[in-house]
Amino acid sequence: EIQQALALVGSGSDGESKHSGLGVDVELISEFPANNETFLARNFTADEIKYCESRPDPLASFTGRWCAKEAIVKAISSASRTRKLWTRGDAAPLREIEIRASPSGAPEVTFHGEVLNVVGSAGISASQIRVTISHAGLYSVAVAVVSE
């Protein structure tokens, strides 16, 4: 049953894939450097910091948002089989990938600056990216999918 369900994920009525990129990231919440102001400023917008600090468990919120950004980078990276889309390196700041709460509360992606140009040149828009974030016990996890 699990294999059948996985086979249907991302398939249209014709059985063809409707997704071009997939990314996942899992992080141990206790290891996230939320007390490092330089790290936060480098990787989160002021709105993201305000949002996470307002949540009941700010550390889990920061970790979940970080996982979402990492999953998005992986989804973008896997969206093309013919060229490398993400060329910013492993230590690139992720502030230009913003995770907001949509009116429904679901995570919503917004790109800024150089990242907006990179994904735009690849024909990818933020509206094509779906992301989900979850916290379970000691971990946060996020999955991102780039839809065609």
Brief description of this entry?
Residues 1-18 have low confidence and may be disordered. A hairpin with a 2-residue loop joins strand 4 (129-136) and strand 5 (139-147).
Can you give a write-up of this model?
The structure is a single chain. The protein is of the alpha+beta class. Helices cover 35% and strands 25% of the residues. It contains five helices and five strands, in the order H-E-H-H-H-E-E-H-E-E. The strands form two sheets. The protein has a three-stranded antiparallel β-sheet, covered by helices on one side. A two-stranded antiparallel sheet has the order 2-3. Helix 3 crosses helix 4 (58-77). The model is unreliable at 1-18 (pLDDT under 50).
What structural keywords apply?
alpha+beta; three-stranded antiparallel β-sheet; single chain; 148 residues
How does the SSE layout of this entry go?
Layout (H helix, E strand, L loop, with lengths): L1 H7 L10 E10 L8 H7 L2 H9 L3 H20 L19 E5 L5 E5 L1 H9 L7 E8 L2 E9 L1
Number of helices: 5
Strand element count: 5
CA-based shape: globular
Question: Any low-confidence stretches, pLDDT <50, length ≥5?
Answer: 1-18
Tell me the Rg in angstroms.
16 Å
Return the average pLDDT rounded to an integer: 84
Distance between the first and last residues' Cα: 26 Å
Structural class: alpha+beta
Helices and strands, in order, run as HEHHHEEHEE
Helix-residue proportion: 25-40%
The oligomerization state is single chain
Question: Which strand order does the major sheet show?
Answer: 1-5-4
